[in-house]
Structures are given as C-alpha cells and as structure tokens.
C-alpha cells in the first residue's frame, strides 16, 4: 500500500465513479481499476460495492476513507511545518464565491497585509460550488443560500435586499418602491437555473402570484446589467450590486413585498485544517462583510431591522 494507491482511492471514493475519477487523475480507466483492486487485495477487504458499471463506497470503504483523509491532512500539515522553518512557506487558500462586485478588492486588501498567503479563486453558481465543496476542491466559499452538506459549517455573513433594476425611462423608474405583482407583465432578464439568485427570485415571484417572463438568460451578472441598460428587459439585483452603481441609464427600485431578501453565507469543511492563515482569512471575511452590512443598513434605514440579521461577531470568531 503506497501513497499513490491512497490518492487514487480517495478520488474514486469521493466521485463514486471510476470514469470521472480517471479523467480527474488523468490516467486510463483500466489502470485506475487495477490500482483499486490491488489496494483491496492488500487490505484484504472490499471497499466498494459493484453494481453493474456503477460503484458505491461500502461501510468498510467509508471507514477507511476517514482515516485516509486524516492521513493526508497530517502529511499536508507536516509539509507546511517543514517548509515554514525554512522561511519559504507560502500558504495557498482555495476560495470560491458567487458573483460579488467587491471580491477582488476584498482579496487584494487581505493579501496586502498577508503577503505570505496565495489564493486560488473560482467564481461560480451555487450548484457548482456545492460540488466543489463536496469534493474538497475548495477550502471555503461564499454562497447564497447557505450550502448544506455533511461535515461542513456555515455562518451568516449578511442579509441584503433584492431589488428591480430597470432602464431610466421605464414606467417604474420614478417609483421609490413597488409591489412585485406590478412587474407581472414585464420581460425579465435572469441568471440561468442553478444560480442561487435565480432560485430566490423565482420563489419571490411565486409568492407574489406570478411566474417571471424570462426572455433572456445569462451566466454573467455583468451582462445582465448591460442588457437592462439596453432596454431589453428588467432584472432582479441584490443590494450589494447596486451599492456603487453610477450608471445614469439604469435605476434600482425597492420591492415593498415582505421577505424579498437573500442571505450570504460562508461555508467550510469541518475537517479543514485550521491553519493560522486560513483562520486569519476566515475572520477577515466575517469582519469585511460585517462592515458591508452596516453600509447597507446606513444606505437603506427602512430595512434596517431585516438587514441586521447578521450573527453577532462574538459568536463567529
């Protein structure tokens, strides 16, 4: 039994799919199958149940995976400590986030104060980040709504209004607020299914009594704003997207209906080794969003009661 066998087993166990695991590991499928078979021979126990072409991790496999995960975590910890004493240590934190207009500023500010830390950053939709976290391909992520998976922890970062973005000449543009049903006949530009924002706004609309007429679906939130600016339709946007909007061709309109909010959360694996750099970054993110929450409250005092739902910092750090 060697480290390569254990690494291959770990990947197959996470995927429960030989073909996908072989593709991820960039090896031939027969070679991977043979490696797993040799590992099972070495252990004297089957780690997977074979169901035709499918495989499922059995009870012995689940127990063995827990020990393999801990072993690799200890090896990684040892590697960091060995490198750290040379003064050449650079910690890498893998982060994923939904589209947020200030993420680059947030990361740059942290790196300026912690130059020994490096980041791998991915931007994606809710469903893709959930899979990345499940596969342990990321250390932590910012999502809306919270990601619920076994052996993970999620905390609330902030709660923000969802608004309507309309062209400047639109019939609703001069309104301070509207009831959502007033937009029933409008053409909408929306994010594709799988984005948490799309799920949230579809739910809001159903509660208001209609299904939005989405005539244009996009994956890039920046394109959504441009299409509204061009007069193609209207769109739902979170308050954070609108906080520094200086575009004279669009205006955001607040929604008077109750519960037109979304909650941003920070999620990480409970098995994540809380290295000093990881812990510093986790606390930094919480404090950064706490300041953003206060800016939202100051900018829209009428919704302060709803927006103040952020968990107290003393409970998070």
From TrEMBL:
Chain ranges of the HTH lysR-type domain: 1-58
Keyword Nuclease (UniProt): no
Molecular function per GO: DNA binding; DNA-binding transcription factor activity
Family: Belongs to the LysR transcriptional regulatory family.
Record's keyword terms, sorted: DNA-binding, Transcription, Transcription regulation
Annotated source species: Paenibacillus paeoniae
Domain of life, source organism: Bacteria
Protein name: LysR family transcriptional regulator
Transmembrane segments: none
Lineage: Bacteria, Bacillati, Bacillota, Bacilli, Bacillales
